[in-house]
Each structure stands twice: as C-alpha cells, then as structure tokens.
Amino acid sequence: MKHRLLGAASALALFAGAAQAEMVLHILHTNDVHSRIEQINGSDSTCNEEQAAANECFGGVARIASKVAELRDRILAEGGSVIVLDAGDQYQGSLFYTTYKGTEVVEFMNAIGYDAMAVGNHEFDDGPEGLAVLVDGVEFPVISSNIDVSKSNVLADKVVRHSVIELGDQKVGVVSALAMDTPETSSPGPNVTFQDDVESLKASVDELTAQGIDKIIALTHVGYLRDQQLAADVPGLDVVVGGHSHTLLGDMEGAEGAYPTLVAGPDGNDVPIVQAYAYGKYLGHLTVTFDDNGEVTALEGQPILLDASVPEDQAIAGRVTEMAEPILELREKVVAETDAPIDGDRANCRARECEMGNLVADAMLDRVRDQGVTIAIQNGGGLRASIDEGEVTMGEIYTVLPFQNTLATFQLNGGDIIAALENGASQHAEAGGRFAQVAGLKYTLDPSAGPGSRISDVMVQEDGAWVSIDEGQTYGVATNNYMRGGGDGYAVFAEKGQNAYDFGPDLAEVVAAYMSGMPEGYVPYLDGRITVK
Length: 533
Known about the structure:
Elements: H1 11-16, E1 23-30, H2 49-53, H3 61-77, E2 81-86, H4 95-100, H5 103-112, E3 116-118, H6 127-137, E4 142-143, E5 147-148, E6 162-167, E7 170-178, H7 182-185, E8 193-194, H8 197-210, E9 216-221, H9 224-233, E10 239-241, E11 261-264, E12 270-274, E13 282-290, E14 296-301, E15 304-305, H10 314-331, E16 334-338, H11 346-349, H12 355-368, E17 373-379, E18 390-393, H13 394-400, E19 407-413, H14 414-425, E20 436-439, E21 441-445, E22 455-462, E23 465-468, E24 474-480, H15 481-484, H16 491-496, E25 498-501, H17 507-516, E26 530-532
Parallel strand pairs: 1-2, 2-3, 3-4, 7-9, 9-10, 10-12, 17-24, 21-26
Antiparallel strand pairs: 1-13, 5-8, 6-7, 11-12, 13-14, 13-15, 16-18, 17-20, 19-24, 19-25, 21-22, 22-23
Helix pairs in contact: 3-5, 3-10, 5-6, 12-17, 13-17
C-alpha cells in the first residue's frame, strides 16, 4: 500500500470521511525556533517598531500560540485529533536566551500547549544543566531515543527515549533521534552517551509496537538528508517530523522539496517527511489519515506562513514585552574595552582589509581553532558599523552584527577557497558586500584584472609560517551561516563544502566573548593580510 497525496480540493473531504477512517490526525509542528521569542523581520532578526508598524513581522511565540489555538479549536470541533510537536533547538539565537537561559522557553511552550519535543543539539549549549532547565519545567515529554542520560546526575530519568500520546481511545507513539555530532557542535558533556540513531529508533519502534501501538512518529533533530535515510532504514515509521537543517518544504518559492517529502520505507510504504524552516516563521501542518489497522491512507498539508495577517495572542504578547525590558538593559552591558575606534566603515570593509573585518574574522577563528579550523572568511557586507574608543557594549556589537548570523564550519579544498576569494572580489568596483575579510589567510587582489584572475598570492599559516595555499589540500574553514548557504554569491561553499555545520553560536556573542577575554582592552589593527593593487 502506497500513501496517496490529497489535492487541495480534498481537504474538506478529509473531514467528511472522518467517520469512516479510524483516525484523522493533525500534526502541528515547529523546529529550530532558536529563541525567536519576539517577532522577526524578513531577515529572521528581531523585528523593530518601524517594521512592526508596517506589518512586516513574522512569527514570535504570541503568533504561534494564536495560530495553534485557532487550529486546535477548529480541528477538534470537526472531529479530528491534533498534536503539537517541536523538533528541537528552541535554545540559542537571541538575547532572550542569553537573559533567561531556557526559563522563557518553558513558559511559552507550556502556554502554547506542546505535546512533545525532541532534544536539539543547542539544548546542550549550557551543558546538561541547561537542558535540565527545560525538562524540569515543561509539562510534556522531552525525548531522544539515541542518547543515554542514565549517568548524568541532572538528566537521569528525565529525557525519555520515546513517548505515547493518548488521544481519546487512540495512542500515538513518538520516537526521536539527535544528531550524532552533537558532542562536536554543543556541550552535552562526558556523561551523555550517544548511540547509533538507526538502531536506537528501531529499538524504540519495536518497544512501542510490542505495546500494541500502530501509529508511530519520528520527531527528529538530525536534518533533512538524514531524515530521508532514517525513513528508508527504520521499519514501522508512519511520519518523520524533522529539524536541525532549517529546511523549508512546500509549494512556496525557495522550498527545498515537497511537503511532505515521500521516501520509500523498508516496509514498502512511503514515509512522509516534514520540516518547517526555522525561527517560528512557519507552523507546519500535516494531516494524516490512518485506517483501522494503523496504515496511512491519506496525507495533506503545507506549512503556514505566520505573517502579520495572523493575530498575536495578546496575553502572551504582553508577557513578551514585559520580559523584553531587562534585555534593553543587557544591550547597555559593557562587555569589553577598545584602545581606539574600530573602523567598520562600509567603504573600507567592502574594498580592503579593515579593522572590523580583522576583529570579526579573528574572533571566528579563535572560537573554532581547536576543531581543526585554520581559516575564517567573513563578508564585508555583514559588518554594519564601527565601534567607538572606550567601553564596548553588547548593543554596539549587535549593531555591528545585527543579522543573528551563526558561526558555520566546513571543509574545503584550496582551489575552492581561491574560487571563493574570486567571488569576494567580483563586485569590488560596486563595493559589493561579498568582499572577503579573512583570518588565517593572506591574499592579493587586482581589481583591474579579468573575472577569475583577480586573486593571487594566496597564503595560509602552517606551523606559524606563511606558505602558499595548496589547491588540492583540504582546509577547515569558518564563516557565517548566510555565506555557507551560498549567500553573497558564495555558491562554492554550499556546493563544495564538506562536513558543514551552520548553526553555531551567534557571531555577536562570539565577538563579545573574544573581546571580553582581553582584560587590558582590545587593540584594533591592520596587518597586511589583504593587499589591493
């Protein structure tokens, strides 16, 4: 039996046929909200007052709550069943998380009424203790089938391997998997053991099936590509609700695949996979019809864009405003000092080595050097301000780096690094934002040369010495997630980068931590790493 997708005209028939079907289940889901408690703008950053007044904002927990409540009420009135799931990474990404460290997530997820959540890698950013804030506070299970927390004094018996959601006389099993490289991308610590995701999911499915549960959802935080592998390898899965890769699926422009994406499972059935981008901009809504034997007979759905046409829950919006007040104070927090102004002027940072480019690239490289990364590349257009001499506030750093870009790491060969630098030079005459500010790297730029030949004398550091880059050698590279995804023309990063991880800490926090580690003050400088003929 193969799943069949319903056309748009079949939505009403889905409800009309509910009496004949064993169960019509509506799955509402979010993933990778990343602390976007407040509304966001089109760049996924916090929406300002001017943008809000122009109705240019999306998401925010008050809007998620409103849409979930509206859909839940309608679905139940029409005789359907509904569950609300989150596929992980509620933590990390805004000053709300910096300020409240998970208590804000607990409050708002409980208010929205989630039924289950997968552990995301960023839930470990403050160690097991950070995840404990979540699991101790929420009123629903937080699950992961492939981590063993039995040796953790703060998590033992609190993160469950799977869960069962009861909906009237029906039961839905939920299993989960967390990305296996989480120890490299976050801080789970030595007492959290990671196990094979496929085998762990199989074991949880078998255990639930032995209990007579024939409707099983995998709620995962492994990424879209890995979800497709899991769907193909793990018997007994009816649906995969994913996160981690921030993937937009659906009929809209920019989507990476169909919603749902169907993958042939080992049972012979097609397994639907869904994900709903990130940052609370969309609410996923998948409708699944099960027959009396627990077999999926119909699927229908699309992510819902939570734009200004969706009203906010006023009580929650008021609470968000109240909680934002201390954040205004945090923006005034002094995190470092600088001995001189740090030049981040647009005209300089998009054309030549600039002091702000050196600071940000150095900070990026310093953060991940122990991961084997030796090169950092930052687009000059991502640097939006200078910093005055004297005390440096967190607000100033966020003004320099306002996009909430995250630190991304990957591997790239030397030839492709040169190609990336050529891209950075390709709009030099127009002061394009793609101009490459660098660390761990030196290069010469000839703006008068033709396309593909503007870059020369590319050098890298090896054992403290500068040597010519080897076009065939693989290097560890740090950049921001925008560039790593192909932004500013850096398609080579997206197409050729290997072992990529795009969701590290916010660049502003990376720079703040780097500067705060210099108690005698930061000294801005130029050192000739970029030569312009």
